[in-house]
Design brief:
Elements: H1 2-12, E1 20-28, E2 57-64, E3 68-75, H2 80-91, E4 100-103, H3 112-120, E5 124-127, H4 137-152, H5 157-170, H6 173-182
Parallel strand pairs: 1-4, 4-5
Antiparallel strand pairs: 1-2, 2-3
Length: 188
């Protein structure tokens, strides 16, 4: 695993950060709530946890150093066909020749069709080394989006979808730049 990390950085360090686009998927549901609470000294913090979490909503997103490139919400799980559709319809129209798409090694990302359609656009595809989320700024993106959704406490799908869309807009270029820097990509 260490060798794969070294190989990854030797390949990526020569690529300008503006050309990097990170793609990942995550899931949310109606049972999202804050992980911590406060109470007066000697008193217990109380809250209510929903009995039913409902169906998952999967979110597939792509971020570059400058912005959220694309994002899609899907009811249920993401499969290879859905992921390929996201790449084709949402990401490819927005990339430029020489861009580098980086994603994890999830099974849905490993299809040969994904590589072919990306390389047809004169872009590169690089996979993160296994078990290396610390190299991916989009993991920090998910952290912020989910923290805001927990605070929202959406208990209907309509509210949850609206919350996702609002939280995507709340992500600033400064946030993204800081996440890239935190993951050791040169942003200056």
């Amino acid at each position: 695993m260490q060798q794969k990390r070294v190989e990854y950085w030797s390949e990526v360090r020569e690529i300008e950060a503006l050309k990097l686009i990170f793609i990942d998927e995550s899931g949310v549901n109606l049972a999202l709530l804050r992980l911590y609470a406060r109470a007066l000294i000697g008193q217990r913090a109380r809250g209510r946890k929903p009995q039913k979490r409902g169906r998952n909503i999967s979110i597939i997103s792509a971020i570059s150093l400058e912005k959220v490139v694309a994002s899609v919400n899907i009811y249920g799980a993401v499969d290879a066909v859905t992921f390929e559709g996201f790449i084709l319809k949402e990401v490819l129209p927005k990339i430029k020749e020489g861009d580098c798409l980086i994603m994890d090694n999830a099974k849905i990302n490993l299809g040969e069709m994904v590589r072919e359609i990306i390389e047809q656009e004169k872009a590169r595809l690089i996979y993160l080394p296994p078990y290396s989320p610390e190299f991916s700024p989009i993991e920090n993106f998910w952290s912020k989006v989910k923290a805001m959704l927990r605070k929202l406490k959406a208990r209907t799908y309509k509210d949850l979808i609206e919350g996702i869309e609002l939280n995507m807009l709340a992500v600033t270029q400064k946030d993204i730049r800081n996440w890239f820097t935190h993951c050791c990509y040169c942003t200056s």
